Model the fold of this input.
Amino acid sequence: MKHFFIVIFISIVGLVSACQTEGEDTEERDLSGNTVEEVEKLKKIVPTSKDVQDVQKCYDAYKKAIMESNGKEAIKSITQSSVDYYGDILEWALNSSKSEVEKLDPVHQFMVLSVRKRIPKEQIKKMTGESLLIYTVDNEWTNKKTVAITELAEIRKIGDNTAKAAMTVRNENTDTVVEFIRADKDAEWKINLLSLSENVNGQLIRMASDRNETVGKLILDMIKQITNSSVSEDVWNPVN
Done:
């Protein structure tokens, strides 16, 4: 289950302008991924019932769009920085060499290699970041069976315009936390898919270590499993 849980959110991912760098996190955290300092701040910020309802509404709309493979609708519930991230993925897919891709965080590597494997080269060259995101949703790069049983746990406010919630699968807590942001108190809440990358990067690194293989090898194996087809070394080469 954990493997597929990782795969969905890498696929959904807009994962990363607020991404942490690789490395072991030694800070103590609660079930929602908050540090001790964040927990103290949370005690002073209580979300209103409207905040909770609006954040849940945002998540439900995004989940509905994913289940219906509707990329244009999905984008309405996502932060602009999450959409912009796909422009970075596209740029890396088009122009980055193997050595450059290997230096990226694991989740970036997964996305770049997935784009190269799963989308025809000529189509990639015509894409924008937004159209790439829409393509991944429209073409079901997500595990819908897992999305269907994934919900938000308790919604907590971190600041006036930021909220966090742990994800649950079949009502069981996971260590994956998603962030929601709004521009101001009168704006709509949006999902910051970038916030998911911290968890996913750590999980990929641990999985590679447990299997005694490189992150790159693990990612190629995952793409092979997802696409049910062989993955050649050519995916390491830039499209251009």
